[in-house]
Write a structure and sequence with these properties.
about 400 residues; 5-stranded mixed sheet; about 30% helix; alpha/beta; 12 helices; 60s Ribosomal Protein L30, Chain: A; 19 strands; 2 domains; Spore Coat Polysaccharide Biosynthesis Protein SpsA, Chain A; 8-stranded mixed sheet
Length: about 400
């Protein structure tokens, strides 16, 4: 049984976002959920916080029946993401289709989120989930801080709406699954489903309570062309992270060492469960550290026989994939090898080229250098090689 499913509603056409929209990444016929914001689709950005949240077990995306090709191109690929579900003629019908698909997984809770809210934070998701411990439903809301006025014919201001008790509702709206599904099915049977403004209204109409939790002003819905402009400006601030790595391998039997994927003749080899490439191991650790994904031993435990003698390029390639899955791009890598022997400098250009190839970088973004420990310590006694690395990654724009 799945504990919590996130249902992302992406079946709308977003006609309010069409007029006046421009940009090289899309044309005026592209639904807003598939338009790019600084390189990634609105839908992918809306999905990412749910893939990254530890309490979300599965993600189901409801799409328009005509959008299969767009969805395949622009969705976020992740193990939590299941097959898309086809939507209906209205938002309520699309949600019900998603609920019916989710029923096969018997979830305890379900979160329903607009695909056009790409800035949802994990803290808002957590607050909604926490509220479901004591309430059948919960919705993030914000105070209505501006004056509220009705607008009459011809755009003429009419009466003022009192703000007392008025809050702006956001998504994700959270529900206990066994509460929401029967209520939505009953609304479909009675013919009232199309008139529902959202799922919280269905719960309230059925006489049950909906908790209000604090929303986030950043969690706005991309609706009109100006929203895209504002979203692009927000994403212009890069998320820069740095990770550091350190590794040591002792000398053992052999006639060569492997450093950064390059075989270097030597009168001894390096000992290790894999090919003992201390350079690639250290870079792998630095990349994993930059995105808070632990270390190389967590992903490739030396106790696992499948990694015995393995080319360490496999480890680094997986670390590069993890960085990308977390929404980051590698900016640069700086590696220092510490040893009295063998001489590293003559091989540095080949090592740089190999690391750049594995990481998908221009060689100008890879630094590999060597130093000695002035004959101090285990490296000074020629007992092994140590390495340190620093890697910088940037949140993908």
């Amino acid at each position: 049984m799945m504990s919590t499913i996130a249902l992302i509603v992406a079946a709308g056409r977003g006609t309010r976002a069409l007029s006046g929209s421009t940009g090289p990444a899309f044309d005026d016929t592209t639904p807003k959920q598939y338009r790019r914001l600084a390189g990634q689709s609105v839908l992918s950005r809306s999905m990412h916080p749910f893939t990254d949240h530890p309490q979300i077990d599965r993600i189901i995306v409801v799409i328009h029946p005509d959008d299969g090709e767009e969805y395949a191109k622009h969705t976020l690929k992740h193990p939590k993401v299941g097959d898309p579900v086809m939507g209906g003629a209205t938002r309520a019908e699309s949600v019900l289709n998603g609920l019916r698909a989710a029923a096969a997984l018997s979830p305890e809770r379900i979160l329903i989120h607009d695909a056009a809210r790409p800035f949802i934070g994990k803290d808002v998701i957590s607050r909604v989930l926490d509220a479901l411990n004591t309430h059948p439903a919960a919705v993030p809301t914000l105070l209505a801080v501006d004056a509220m006025r009705r607008v009459g014919n011809g755009g003429i201001l009419a009466d003022t709406v009192e703000r007392d008790g008025i809050r702006r509702a956001q998504t994700p709206q959270g529900f206990r699954f066994t509460t929401l599904l029967p209520i939505m099915e009953a609304a479909a049977s009675s013919g009232t489903l199309p008139s529902l403004s959202d799922e919280a209204q269905a719960i309230i109409t059925a006489g049950q309570s909906v908790a209000s939790v604090e929303g986030d002003p950043m969690n706005f819905k991309v609706t009109i062309p100006e929203d895209f402009t504002m979203a692009e400006r927000l994403l212009a601030q890069p998320d820069i992270r740095t990770g550091q790595g350190y590794d040591v391998h002792a000398f053992g039997d052999g006639d060569h060492v492997v450093l950064c994927g390059i075989k270097i003749p030597h009168d001894r080899g390096l000992s290790g469960h894999s090919d003992a490439d201390v350079g690639l191991h250290t870079i792998t650790d630095a990349l994993l550290g930059a995105v808070a994904e632990g270390d190389i031993g967590r992903h490739f435990p030396p106790s696992d026989p499948q990694w015995k003698g393995m080319d360490s390029a496999v480890f680094l390639e997986r670390a590069v994939e993890i960085v990308s899955e977390r929404g980051y791009a590698i900016s640069n890598i700086d590696l220092t090898l510490i040893c009295e022997e063998p001489k590293v400098t003559p091989h540095a250009p080949a090592m740089i080229a190999r690391v750049a190839e594995l990481c998908g970088l221009d060689p100008s973004r890879v630094s590999i250098k060597a130093t000695t420990s002035e004959q101090l310590g285990f490296t000074g006694r020629r007992e092994g090689i140590a390495a340190t690395a620093v890697a910088t990654v940037i949140g993908k724009a």
